[in-house]
Amino acid sequence: MPLIVNNSQVHLPRTTAEFIRLYSHFEESAKAFRSRPTQQVEPRGLLYVQQREFAATTPQDGSVSIIGSEDATTCHLVVLRHTGSGAVCLAHCDGSDAVTEVSMMVSTVKSLSVASQSGRLELHLVGGFIDDRRLSQKLTLQLLGAFDCQLEDVHLVTYCVTELNDVVKKGVHWPIIYGIAVDITKGEIFPAAFPDKSPDEDLRSARTFTGGPMINIYDAETQQLKIKPCFWFPFPDVDFWLAQKDEMILKGISTSPLVEPSHFVPHLRSTLRFLKEHPIPDNLLFPDGQPRIYKKNVNGLWEGSKIASMSS
Question: What are the CA-CA distances from residue 254 to residues 96, 189, 273 (Å)?
């Protein structure tokens, strides 16, 4: 069945501007969403999702109470929630394979909602801006099209992307909201920032940086965060990029160099150093070929695998 807005099948547009003209009520709802203060989310009970990752759980989860993600410039943050079961999934999409990623999200939320006798799938889209390369516009249209191709009705509730998440500062377009979080029990979605993005931030970033596909990082049944063994080829230019000034790294690697958050370059340098130390994933990262598994402790913080140093 199709993507639904106001209980009617959407008309898929050729442009994002056309979509806003057709469904102009999203302008007011996006304005209200953008006006909400950004909340700092502490690590207790948090499940943080990086780029090309998604995670899903239910209100019955005794370990995770918040799912969140940030650092979205041209990327989109996608939340899919079943109103009956309360199962919720959050993905950080960059346009690598929207059709496959959307199908994975829908399948995951459905599997967590099989016992629910009522309810519907509700979709929330946040992120992007009016970027020079039109990457945000392209991703918005890809996601709308991918959800419209699903067998289940999906009701678009929040649309705060691209033109509706854009502000001009000194002649430069910027995204307004970079991150969001979902309160799993309440189903509430709000702008958010995350001082802690553990566990295994560098490893997970390295997987994405080297072209890894979208993955599900959380097992709601066991309440474990799992990073399965992955592979990447040695990054040949790692020493070159580590030697560059911040401005060159922004210009050469970022899809939106003028509007990246202040921690973008330090984070990327950390990822590059990780790739230099671990040119290929090996037994230090995945002993005996097993996944790296983390579980929340009594303080709501992740405990589990530790990365071994090359020098140990």
Answer: 15, 27, 17
> Residue written as tokens 């699903």?
150
Question: Structure tokens of 282?
Answer: 């090996």
Q: For residue 98, give the DSSP letter.
A: H
Strands 46-48 and 66-69: parallel
Residue owning tokens 């990073």: 227
Alpha-carbon distance of 228 to 211, in angstroms, equals 15
Per the CB < 8 A criterion, the answer to whether 123 and 140 are in contact is: no
pLDDT tens readout for residues 70-106: 999 999 999 999 999 999 999 999 999 999 999 999 9
Summarize pLDDT for 25-56 with one digit per residue, the tens: 999 999 999 999 999 999 999 999 999 999 99
Q: Which residues pair with 48 in a beta bridge?
A: 68
Rounded to whole angstroms, the Cα distance separating 122 from 166 reads 24
Domain 3-229+289-302 has CATH 3.30.1330.200: yes
